[in-house]
Amino acid sequence: MISVKELRRSFGPIVAVDGISFDVEKGQVLGLLGPNGAGKTTAMRMLACFLKPDSGTATVCGYDILTNSVEVRRSLGYLAENSPAYNEMTIGAFLNFVCDARQISGKERKRALDRVVPMCSIESVYHQTIETLSKGYQRRVGLAQALIHDPDVLILDEPTDGLDPNQKHEVRGLINSMAKDKCIIISTHILEEVEIVCSRTIIISRGRILVDSTPEKLKEKYRCSLDEVFRKITKAKVA
Question: Where in the sequence is the domain holding 59, given as residue range(s)?
Answer without folding.
Answer: 2-84+152-238
